[in-house]
Design goal:
This protein has helices at residues 2-25, 47-70, 79-85, 94-98, 145-158; strands spanning 32-36, 40-42, 104-109, 113-117, 125-127, 163-168. With 170 residues, it is of the alpha/beta class. The protein is globular and about 55 Å long.
Length: 170
């Protein structure tokens, strides 16, 4: 688990260093990053499901978006995650490099996650598969509303950034 945090941090740092190197060349062009993002919804109106959906949003989305667009990890919002996975080893200058401004954010969207609290599951989250939905042959729920919700949440959480839908699976 702790290796996953190191890998994610090094991936983000590599991105930031690549942006810096591109900017230092003085070449014309735009540079950004494409991320697989997934809106996360609670399966019910319960407070437990809402909290688990928030933790899953941190893991799947904010753990990558916040360092790039805010220059910080979403630590205050992810205590359950941190207890299981730990914190990245952030060295001086890492977050400054990671958060070098990008020209665009690429969004790869395939489906949503619907989650319920389940203490027997890792991070207390169980994915719920709505029976009344349509699914791809890969088993991904076809949920077009999720793309709109995801883009709206990006604007609400990070302000206006140029966004390209770089992949849309269904």
């Amino acid at each position: 688990k702790k290796a996953a945090i190191r890998v994610a941090h090094n991936l983000l740092l590599s991105h930031g260093l690549a942006v810096r190197a591109f900017r230092e060349t003085g070449l014309e062009g735009k540079i950004g990053v494409s991320l697989n993002l997934k809106p996360v919804y609670p399966a019910t109106d319960s407070g437990e499901d809402a909290r688990i959906a928030e933790v899953q949003d941190v893991i799947k989305n904010r753990w990558f978006l916040d360092p790039i667009l805010r220059g910080e990890y979403p630590i205050a919002r992810s205590q359950e995650f941190i207890e299981d996975y730990g914190l990245p080893d952030v060295k001086d200058g890492d977050l400054a490099a990671i958060s070098i401004p990008i020209d665009f954010l690429g969004v790869n969207y395939y489906s949503r996650d619907l989650v319920a609290f389940d203490s027997s599951m890792p991070l207390n989250a169980r994915r719920v598969r709505p029976e009344d939905s349509d699914y791809t042959t890969m088993g991904w729920e076809i949920y077009p509303q999720g793309l709109e919700d995801l883009l709206t949440k990006l604007k609400d959480n990070y302000g206006y950034v140029d966004v390209y839908v770089t992949e849309n699976g269904v």
